[in-house]
Amino acid sequence: MIEFNARFGDPETQVVLARLKTPLGGVLMAAATGNLAHLEPTRWSDEAAVTVVVASHNYPGPPRTGDPITGLDEVAAEDAPHAYVLHAGTKRDGDAVVSAGGRVLSVTATGKDLTEARDRAYRAVARIRLDGSQHRTDIAAKAAREA
C-alpha cells in the first residue's frame, strides 16, 4: 500500500482563494462539523488570478533579514482591490515592516483574463521596494500568450 499526501503551498492557495466567492469561513466550519453536504454549491469568480512571490536576497539560500520594505501603502492605495499584498516572511520593527524570511511576501491580482491579472500583479510588485529582493518574471506568461 502506498499513501500519498498533497497540499497546496502558499502561492498556490493564494491564487485559488482569490477567485473563491463563497465565504471560506463557512466552508471550513461546515467541514469541521460534518455539514459539507448542506452547503450551497461553491461559487467562483470568472476572473483570472495571478500570484507573484517576492523573495529576499540570497533566497533559496540563507535569507538576508531585517531589510525595510516600502511601497506597501502604495499598492493598497493604487492597486486595490484588484491587487493586494500577502505577508509571509515579514515582521514589524517599530513603525517599519522588514524582511524576516526567504519568501517575504506575495502579490495576488485578479483581472478579466490572465493578461490583465498578470499586468496588475507585476505593476504592484514594481511598487514594492526591498533591497536585494528577487521575483520571477515569467509567472503566467506562457498561459497568457496561449489564451
From TrEMBL:
InterPro entries, sorted: PRibGlycinamide_synth, PRibGlycinamide_synth_C-dom, PRibGlycinamide_synth_C_sf, PRibGlycinamide_synth_CS, Rudment_hybrid_motif
Keywords: ATP-binding, Ligase, Nucleotide-binding, Purine biosynthesis
Residue ranges constituting the Phosphoribosylglycinamide synthetase C-domain domain according to the UniProt record: 48-144
GO biological process terms on file: purine nucleobase biosynthetic process; purine nucleotide biosynthetic process
Database matches in Gene3D superfamilies: ATP-grasp fold, B domain, Phosphoribosylglycinamide synthetase, C-terminal domain
Domain of life: Bacteria
Necessary cofactors: Mg(2+); Mn(2+)
One of the record's GO molecular function terms: phosphoribosylamine-glycine ligase activity
Similarity field: Belongs to the GARS family.
Protein name per its UniProtKB record: Glycinamide ribonucleotide synthetase
